């Protein structure tokens, strides 16, 4: 014996401990993976030894390896062994390992229940502490349910150390098992007044977190917390309480009013930044929630803004960031107070930290007003010049545009200024946002009529200037602005000073290097310009007959004699180049324009006036259309927009279309018109075939993915050899006014306006002359600054068609409006009704989808108010647990296998439940419980997966088989032994005859014929559960194992040796493991085509569909993927990874199940088992 | 708090504590993503970033980054304080802690964290109490090769001393 011990300790000396492992890994930097796999082999060896010390050491090393990213789930069982060590040293290591690597999918976790319970009640507070800490990391719904009572007891432990932990862990328990909240709540509330500050703060923590999830149930605690807040000096606790109040105030405005004072006091007095920040945030939240109800909260807002200013001015980046963040919250409701600190925010744009700069930009967006827009944009432009890094510069650019264009340009008072800003932005190098600038230019030029002349002049200058044509500009998309420039010049050519010059600029040879869509616009607008030139000439010489000779007479006409001819000549000369363009659009337009010009020239030569005809091509005013304009269009008679064109597909069918297509059709009643479905499929197939064919056909011009891409990186365009003469062009485009001057001009304008107001009487006439400007009154207030030009359109209404500018109230419109409204009304309602229906359906679907186990579909939320919106489905009848109802009632001897007994219990329980429910209802407002009220519909029948194995006078054996995904190809058999006699049963031993396919896992060293001892004795009338692991070779067929339970039955008269034979049946279902599956993954699985299918149909089923699903889930370990109406898809997986998919459909009195499975044999076996289950329904 | 990660400047994970149940795969993905994001930030940047629907609060001490994920309504400053408090605890326990202490005694680092936070919530705000609990638990522990009171061959390595700086919360 002694020798053995010595030998053991010598062995141990050679084992690596954790530090050796760490050192080893650091020394094997090159072949780390190899070294670690070697270490894992050693660890596996160590885990096989008997000594717990060795095992603990191994587990400790594994925990380290887990952190490095290695999978150690295979050692879960060893971890449990170490957890159950009696020595604290080992226990601590075991729980640490468990807390790091156990999760809800770890199946051996259910073996820990009793061990944890034992540790929780251990006399040593450190054992208990370690168990609580560990449990907080890996608590599952099962564990929460089974241990809730024990933890609740610990909340009143004598040691504050334990109380504190127990209170905190209760939060995790509530999340996993909401039913525990109601019984535990009174005690939790008590803990708010615990003498120990640590326990108190823990209770505050828990209630605060609960209240954030469902505030309304905790309103009643407000007075208590109020007291705590005013008395506590612990900042950690204060922060939590204030946060809690932040969650409560939206529900109870009066509370907010009461809070303002103590909170402002705290803001004034505290020196802790975290507390200050929390207070400010809560005050903001309070003020937002009572934005109307509070008369004089401006003082509090001012205080907050002041304090935030201090934060922003701080040199600490963190405070700066948070200050800006909180400012943006205030901005939403009190923009004025924030605008006062514009300087500060602008300063932040210079910050080194990009995240701070971006925050400041966000703030600026909300801070602009008519008054400060120009100044802010000016500053931003300076930053654009300074900014390094294109990403930030682009961000600035988009922000500038967003700031200016927000609210339908509500802050822009001078559009000349805005256009010049846009022009300035085009000089940005390397920006990706050319199209954004272009869109703005177009928008402004079209909608602001007064600005068109100015815009056209600017655009003409842009077209003239060289830099945008440079190859660099072409590559990065800034050339997009040329699109806008060309279009604006063409469309509004009447404003153009020198159309010929612009025309020449547009037809320069270098233009052909631009992207196709821009060239196309160039060509089209060249024609417009030509028309303009022609028109002017013809107007100048009213008599076409003597136009050529007479031309000199009209000296001050803009157009020199023969200007049209010159222009036509230019076009005829340059257009052929575009006709040869590779871009189809350019080609087509160019040849069209070319012919038109030739024709015009011909006619002109004959002296026929053509300008009118040509300009008719482009006649018509462009009127912007409001987003809601469609409403104004009357619905033609006889057209019912709400009628279905085709038969509406029923919802259920639409939903399950995909899985259905995969399963064979066997139910004609359910089938949609088959022809149509076939058509769809056929169409899709043909489309695919066609695509294939096209792809293979060299003569087919393949479709391009997107036109955008085409022009941006089409190699053809860039490779055309164009001689680019890049003289070092100054950044400033000559002739373009800089935007800055507008700031000054605008100042003057406003000044003038103000002055005007004073002397309005004298200048009335003058003012009337200036079109487009609203006679406004003006002084400093923001709203009163009259814009220099007006945006043409408002978002709401649209001018009737062909009416250039809609006067705000035209009698015609008013007359039309009521009529329209009348006719629309019923339709709208109908539409809404359908929407509502759809909404409801969607909701029901969502609900149903979120509760993976089908046990409680919609009603769980329809009724009770689950206080925690836990993401975990908390259905009490979760399929993965054996006897869902017993755990919390009889924690001691909690496995009563007797079926009849259980049913009786069930009845009693439901009776009790009813009573307690009634009582609860009388209790007054719910305390916030997740106790989901039982279904009104139809209760699920009690289900048990424990089956009778064998029985004699002494003992009854029931068992359940459960697969485990983790432990390779293994199943766990839970065997419940109940002593029926008056004898004490001891030395219980389970002997099983192994088959080739299934082998009992025996302790190391035992031979294949040895029995496995059952680790307990059975006093009279007692039952207990033991678990045995079997490793399985093939899971494809069901099988039976013969075995014997041998034991010694002892009473006062003596003892006898007894035996009980049994046959252990492993069904194929028992090899399945409930595995959740998302519907898209499910669909993919079915599409993969790896699965073979078959189906079964059972008639005469009266059970509801819900219960049928629950039964399948429970007995066959499936999980529901999706359920639509009376059709559901389900999924499960075998312990060897075979996928099994079901489609269950219910018709009247019959249920059909399509099964798809990776293996045909398994499929057959499962089908038989499903049939048996369904027949029993 | 949803989780806490400790990693080195080289991106090696030194400690991880998850207070929300996630699969290993998901954890690895998050870790990889966050380590990259945080390491890419410049030293002058603030300690907060928005990531997915969470807020990340991180702080660098010598060669180690301490990184916490909190929810939207949580207080960033108090989280920084938690990180700081934890560093102080490590510092007190190991006696001027360095990265190697945490590597070689990672289980100790976990034990300390577990005494300080439970389920993502602050369990004990008093440093003295946390250390007392750890000391007493250590006393219970018998001599065991890998779990002895730490003694790393320190002289072999250059030590990076953790600096202790700004406080956002008064000590109580």
From TrEMBL, chain A:
<feature type="compositionally biased region" description="Basic and acidic residues">
    <location>
        <begin position="744"/>
        <end position="758"/>
    </location>
</feature>
<dbReference type="InterPro" id="IPR017105">
    <property type="entry name" value="AP3_complex_dsu"/>
</dbReference>
<dbReference type="InterPro" id="IPR011989">
    <property type="entry name" value="ARM-like"/>
</dbReference>
<feature type="compositionally biased region" description="Basic residues">
    <location>
        <begin position="895"/>
        <end position="904"/>
    </location>
</feature>
<feature type="domain" description="AP-3 complex subunit delta">
    <location>
        <begin position="678"/>
        <end position="802"/>
    </location>
</feature>
<dbReference type="InterPro" id="IPR058898">
    <property type="entry name" value="Mu_AP3"/>
</dbReference>
<comment type="similarity">
    <text>Belongs to the adaptor complexes large subunit family.</text>
</comment>
<dbReference type="Pfam" id="PF01602">
    <property type="entry name" value="Adaptin_N"/>
</dbReference>
<feature type="compositionally biased region" description="Basic residues">
    <location>
        <begin position="759"/>
        <end position="773"/>
    </location>
</feature>
<feature type="compositionally biased region" description="Basic and acidic residues">
    <location>
        <begin position="811"/>
        <end position="820"/>
    </location>
</feature>
<keyword id="KW-0677">Repeat</keyword>
<keyword id="KW-0472">Membrane</keyword>
<feature type="region of interest" description="Disordered">
    <location>
        <begin position="639"/>
        <end position="706"/>
    </location>
</feature>
<feature type="compositionally biased region" description="Low complexity">
    <location>
        <begin position="538"/>
        <end position="548"/>
    </location>
</feature>
<feature type="region of interest" description="Disordered">
    <location>
        <begin position="744"/>
        <end position="940"/>
    </location>
</feature>
<feature type="compositionally biased region" description="Basic and acidic residues">
    <location>
        <begin position="666"/>
        <end position="693"/>
    </location>
</feature>
<dbReference type="Pfam" id="PF06375">
    <property type="entry name" value="AP3D1"/>
</dbReference>
<protein>
    <submittedName>
        <fullName>AP-3 complex subunit delta-1 isoform X3</fullName>
    </submittedName>
</protein>
<dbReference type="InterPro" id="IPR016024">
    <property type="entry name" value="ARM-type_fold"/>
</dbReference>
<dbReference type="InterPro" id="IPR010474">
    <property type="entry name" value="AP3D_dom_metazoa"/>
</dbReference>
<keyword id="KW-0653">Protein transport</keyword>
<feature type="compositionally biased region" description="Basic residues">
    <location>
        <begin position="821"/>
        <end position="831"/>
    </location>
</feature>
UniProtKB/TrEMBL annotation, chain B:
<dbReference type="InterPro" id="IPR044733">
    <property type="entry name" value="AP1_sigma"/>
</dbReference>
<protein>
    <recommendedName>
        <fullName>AP complex subunit sigma</fullName>
    </recommendedName>
</protein>
<keyword id="KW-0653">Protein transport</keyword>
<keyword id="KW-0968">Cytoplasmic vesicle</keyword>
<feature type="domain" description="AP complex mu/sigma subunit">
    <location>
        <begin position="1"/>
        <end position="140"/>
    </location>
</feature>
<dbReference type="InterPro" id="IPR000804">
    <property type="entry name" value="Clathrin_sm-chain_CS"/>
</dbReference>
<comment type="similarity">
    <text>Belongs to the adaptor complexes small subunit family.</text>
</comment>
<keyword id="KW-0472">Membrane</keyword>
<dbReference type="InterPro" id="IPR011012">
    <property type="entry name" value="Longin-like_dom_sf"/>
</dbReference>
<keyword id="KW-0813">Transport</keyword>
<dbReference type="InterPro" id="IPR016635">
    <property type="entry name" value="AP_complex_ssu"/>
</dbReference>
<dbReference type="Pfam" id="PF01217">
    <property type="entry name" value="Clat_adaptor_s"/>
</dbReference>
<dbReference type="InterPro" id="IPR022775">
    <property type="entry name" value="AP_mu_sigma_su"/>
</dbReference>
<keyword id="KW-0333">Golgi apparatus</keyword>
């Amino acid at each position: 014996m002694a020798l053995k011990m010595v030998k053991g300790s010598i062995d141990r000396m050679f084992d690596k401990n954790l530090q050796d492992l760490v050192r080893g890994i650091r020394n094997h930097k090159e072949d780390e993976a190899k070294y670690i796999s070697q270490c894992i082999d050693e660890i596996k060896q160590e885990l096989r030894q008997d000594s717990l010390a060795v095992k603990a050491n191994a587990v400790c090393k594994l925990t380290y390896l887990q952190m490095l990213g290695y999978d150690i789930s295979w050692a879960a069982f060893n971890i449990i062994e170490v957890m159950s060590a009696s020595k604290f040293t080992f226990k601590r290591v075991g729980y640490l390992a468990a807390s790091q690597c156990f999760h809800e999918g770890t199946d051996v976790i259910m073996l820990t229940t009793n061990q944890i319970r034992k540790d929780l009640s251990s006399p040593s507070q450190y054992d208990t502490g370690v168990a609580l800490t560990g449990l907080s990391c890996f608590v599952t719904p099962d564990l929460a349910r089974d241990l809730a009572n024990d933890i609740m007891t610990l909340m009143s432990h004598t040691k504050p150390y334990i109380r504190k932990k127990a209170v905190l862990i209760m939060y995790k328990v509530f999340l996993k098992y909401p039913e525990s909240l109601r019984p535990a709540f009174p005690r939790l509330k008590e803990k708010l007044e615990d003498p120990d500050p640590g326990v108190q703060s823990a209770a505050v923590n828990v209630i605060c977190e609960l209240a954030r999830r469902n505030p309304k149930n905790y309103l009643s605690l407000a007075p208590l917390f109020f007291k705590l807040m005013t008395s506590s000096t612990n900042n950690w606790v204060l922060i939590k309480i204030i946060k809690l109040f932040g969650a409560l105030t939206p529900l109870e405005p009066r509370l907010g009013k009461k809070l303002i004072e103590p909170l402002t006091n705290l803001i004034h007095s505290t020196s802790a930044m975290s507390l200050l920040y929390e207070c400010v945030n809560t005050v903001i939240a309070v003020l937002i929630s009572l934005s109307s109800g509070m008369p004089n909260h401006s003082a509090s807002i001012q205080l907050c803004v002041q304090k935030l200013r201090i934060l922003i001015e701080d040199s600490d980046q963190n405070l700066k960031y948070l200050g800006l963040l909180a400012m943006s919250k205030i901005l939403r409701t009190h923009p004025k107070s924030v605008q006062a600190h514009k300087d500060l925010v602008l300063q932040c744009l210079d910050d080194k930290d990009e995240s701070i700069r971006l925050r400041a930009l966000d703030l600026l967006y909300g801070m602009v007003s008519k008054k400060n827009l120009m100044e802010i944009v000016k500053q931003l432009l300076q930053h654009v010049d300074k900014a390094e890094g294109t990403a930030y510069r682009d961000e600035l650019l988009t922000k500038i545009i967003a700031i200016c264009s927000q609210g339908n340009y509500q802050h822009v008072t001078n559009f000349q200024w805005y256009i010049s800003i846009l022009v300035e932005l085009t000089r940005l190098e390397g920006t990706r946002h050319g199209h954004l600038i272009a869109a703005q230019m177009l928008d402004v030029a079209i909608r602001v009529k007064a600005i068109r002349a100015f815009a056209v002049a600017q655009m003409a200058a842009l077209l003239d200037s060289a830099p945008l044509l440079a190859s660099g500009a072409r590559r990065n998309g800034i050339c997009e602005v040329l699109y806008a420039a060309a279009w604006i010049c063409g469309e509004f050519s009447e404003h153009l000073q020198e159309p010929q010059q612009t025309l020449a600029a547009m037809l320069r040879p270098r233009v052909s290097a631009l992207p196709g869509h821009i060239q196309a616009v160039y060509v089209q607008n060249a024609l417009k310009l030509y028309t303009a030139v022609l028109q002017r000439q013809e107007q100048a010489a009213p008599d076409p007959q003597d136009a050529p000779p007479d031309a000199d007479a009209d000296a001050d006409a803009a157009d020199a004699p023969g200007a049209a001819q010159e222009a036509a000549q230019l076009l005829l000369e340059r257009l052929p180049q575009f006709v040869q363009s590779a871009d189809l659009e350019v080609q087509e337009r160019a040849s069209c324009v070319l012919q038109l010009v030739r024709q015009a020239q011909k006619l002109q030569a004959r002296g026929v006036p053509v300008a009118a005809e040509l300009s008719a091509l482009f006649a018509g005013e462009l009127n912007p259309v409001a987003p809601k304009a469609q409403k104004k269009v009357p619905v033609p008679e006889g057209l019912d927009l709400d009628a279905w064109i085709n038969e509406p597909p029923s919802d259920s069918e639409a939903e399950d279309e995909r899985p259905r297509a995969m399963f064979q059709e066997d139910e004609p009643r359910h089938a949609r018109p088959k022809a149509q479905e076939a058509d769809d499929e056929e169409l899709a197939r043909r489309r695919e075939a066609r695509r294939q064919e096209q792809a293979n056909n060299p003569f087919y011009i393949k479709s391009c993915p997107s036109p955008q891409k085409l022009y941006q990186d089409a190699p053809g365009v860039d490779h055309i050899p164009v001689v680019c003469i890049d003289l070092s062009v100054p950044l400033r485009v000559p002739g373009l006014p800089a935007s800055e001057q507008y700031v000054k001009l605008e100042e003057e304008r406003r000044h003038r306006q103000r002055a005007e107001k004073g002397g309005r009487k004298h200048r009335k006439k003058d003012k009337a002359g200036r079109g487009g400007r609203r006679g406004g009154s003006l002084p400093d207030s923001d709203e009163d600054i009259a814009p220099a030009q007006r945006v043409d359109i408002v978002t709401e209404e649209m001018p009737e068609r062909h009416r250039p500018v809609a006067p705000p109230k035209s009698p015609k419109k008013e007359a039309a409006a009521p009529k329209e409204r009348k006719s629309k009304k019923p339709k709208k309602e109908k539409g809404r009704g359908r929407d509502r229906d759809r909404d409801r359906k969607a909701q029901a679907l969502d609900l149903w989808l979120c509760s993976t186990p089908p046990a409680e579909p919609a009603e769980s939320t329809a009724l009770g108010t689950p206080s925690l919106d836990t993401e975990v489905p908390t259905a009490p009848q979760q399929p993965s647990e054996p006897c869902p109802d017993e755990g919390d009632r009889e924690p001691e001897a909690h496995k009563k296998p007797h079926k009849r007994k259980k049913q009786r219990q069930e009845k009693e329980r439901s009776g009790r439940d009813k009573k307690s429910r009634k009582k609860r209802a009388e209790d007054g407002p719910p305390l916030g419980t997740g106790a989901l009220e039982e279904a009104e519909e139809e209760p699920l029948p009690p289900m048990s997966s424990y089956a009778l194995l064998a029985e004699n006078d002494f003992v009854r054996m029931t068992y359940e088989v459960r697969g485990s995904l983790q432990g390779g190809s293994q199943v766990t058999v839970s065997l419940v032994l109940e002593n029926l006699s008056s004898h004490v049963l001891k030395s219980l031993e389970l002997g099983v005859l192994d088959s080739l396919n299934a082998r009992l896992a025996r302790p190391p060293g035992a031979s294949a014929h040895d029995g496995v001892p059952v680790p307990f004795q059975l006093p009279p009338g007692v039952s207990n559960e033991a678990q045995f692991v079997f490793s399985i070779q093939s899971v494809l067929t069901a099988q039976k194992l013969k075995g014997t339970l041998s034991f010694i039955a002892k009473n006062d008269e003596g003892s006898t040796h007894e035996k009980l034979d049994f046959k252990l049946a492993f069904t194929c279902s028992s090899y399945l493991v409930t595995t959740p599956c998302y519907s898209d993954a499910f669909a993919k699985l079915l599409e993969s085509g790896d699965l073979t299918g078959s189906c079964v149909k059972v008639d005469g089923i009266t059970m509801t569909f819900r219960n049928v699903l629950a039964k399948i889930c429970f007995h066959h370990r499936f999980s529901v993927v999706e359920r639509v109406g009376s059709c559901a898809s389900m999924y499960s997986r075998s312990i060897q990874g075979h996928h099994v998919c079901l489609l269950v459909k219910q018709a009247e009195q019959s249920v059909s199940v399509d099964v798809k499975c990776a293996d045909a044999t398994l499929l057959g076996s499962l089908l038989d088992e499903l049939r048996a289950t369904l027949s029993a329904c | 708090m949803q989780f806490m990660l400790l990693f080195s400047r080289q991106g090696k994970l030194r400690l991880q504590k998850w207070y929300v149940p996630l699969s290993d795969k998901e954890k690895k993905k998050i870790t990889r993503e966050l380590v990259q994001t945080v390491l890419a930030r410049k030293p002058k940047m603030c300690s907060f970033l928005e990531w997915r629907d969470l807020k990340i609060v991180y702080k660098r001490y010598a060669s180690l980054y301490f990184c916490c994920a909190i929810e939207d309504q949580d207080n960033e400053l108090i989280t920084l304080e938690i990180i700081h408090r934890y560093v102080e605890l490590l510092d007190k326990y190991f006696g001027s802690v360095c990265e190697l202490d945490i590597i070689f005694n990672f289980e100790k680092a976990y034990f300390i964290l577990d005494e300080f936070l439970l389920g993502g919530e602050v369990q004990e705000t008093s440093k003295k109490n946390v250390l007392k609990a750890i000391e007493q638990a250590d006393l219970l522990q018998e001599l065991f090769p890998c779990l002895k009171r730490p003694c790393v061959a320190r002289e072999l390595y250059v030590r990076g001393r953790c600096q202790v700086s700004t406080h956002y919360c008064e000590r109580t």
